[in-house]
Write a structure and sequence with these properties.
Elements (H helix, E strand, L loop, with lengths): L1 H4 L9 E5 L12 H14 L5 E4 L30 H9 L5 E3 L1 E2 L5 E9 L2 E8 L9 E8 L4 E11 L2 E4 L6 E3 L3 E8 L4 E10 L9
Parallel strand pairs: 1-2
Antiparallel strand pairs: 3-5, 4-7, 5-6, 6-12, 7-11, 8-9, 8-10, 8-12
Helix pairs in contact: 2-3
Length: 209
Amino acid sequence: LLMRDTPSYAKSLKIVSEWGPFPEKNIWYENIFGAAHLVATVTRAFDAIDMLFPFEIKDGRAIDEGSFSGWGILRNEEFWFAKKPRYFALSLLTKLGSLTFDAEGVDERLYALASGSNPVNLTMVLTNYTFGRGSTLLPIETRLIHLLPGIYRIRKTVLNSEGLQSEEEGEPSPVSKDELVFPLELFADNIVALDINRASAATAHTLGE
């Protein structure tokens, strides 16, 4: 409403100085649900908000015995210092570059961003965000459009309740037009980062060449 009623604010920086899944301390700040919420929020705010800031970087000391350690992405030394899932979710998002690519999903639970530093090396970050209520595997067809033709390799990194897990590159995927389509399975509230790199400008490889 403020932007609508005050047009002069339209060009102002839009900053959210404190944000998270809950205003009060909550176990989500310690687990994969909070990380999935973080990625889902960033995908929705990407074109609308200029800056998003977590409430605190590292947890403060506990006030009450048995209370959750805090809102931070890092745990306080009092609770055995560690990097929390939201820290790793942010680290995956930092792979995104300045060039934005179109990512199309087929399910409302799918939140995705795709971008890169150039048209042939890009990263896609996705999550199957269920608001902490689901346990369903989400099979999807992932489609990237407006790509340069060539042979692309995809390397997958998964963030789940066990931490970060990297997987080896799959078979090379050809892009003969401007679209890359591949299947992907996402478990509930898991986060996947795909590093997509063009290995060759050719769209096919002939034996003996």
